[in-house]
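Lab meeting, item 3. Inverse folding demo.
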């Protein structure tokens, strides 16, 4: 169980009772990437049917790796990307269980434009297993690196 406490609209403290841990979120810290999906929120899907979710990973200038030439013009600009992740309320552990889901690819580099931004598009295919009980679930689709996980919640109605 998680419990949150907000102080001065800037410090967010949380405790994870089941693991006996406490932590603080720095709300002023800018995240190095963001995650968006299409569809944006709700998805209805029949058991055994495969649906595609488009996942967009956007990067800001934070975390850019840049190779500079002698005249200080960028020859190659890119950032190493985090790995893609998915979890859901289909099981108590967050696993997809007998349902299947896969990304069409993992991304290793993202080209960065002159403004220092980059974007990647990845496709995630999801198939609820025929034995999954019909109902409403939440699936988290996102990306993670060594320091942060950013996810987008999707409401999944399985029929």
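The presenter then showed the designed sequence:
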């Amino acid at each position: 169980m998680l419990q949150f406490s907000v102080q001065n609209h800037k410090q967010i403290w949380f405790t994870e009772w089941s693991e006996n841990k406490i932590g603080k979120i720095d709300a002023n810290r800018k995240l190095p990437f963001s995650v968006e999906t299409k569809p944006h929120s709700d998805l209805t899907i029949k058991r055994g049917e495969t649906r595609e979710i488009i996942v967009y990973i956007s990067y800001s200038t934070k975390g850019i790796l840049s190779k500079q030439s002698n005249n200080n013009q960028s020859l190659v600009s890119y950032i190493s990307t985090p790995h893609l992740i998915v979890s859901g309320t289909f099981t108590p552990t967050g696993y997809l269980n007998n349902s299947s889901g896969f990304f069409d690819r993992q991304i290793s580099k993202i080209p960065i434009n002159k403004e220092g931004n980059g974007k990647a598009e990845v496709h995630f295919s999801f198939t609820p297993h025929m034995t999954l009980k019909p109902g409403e679930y939440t699936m988290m689709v996102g990306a993670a690196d060594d320091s942060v996980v950013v996810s987008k919640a999707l409401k999944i109605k399985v029929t």
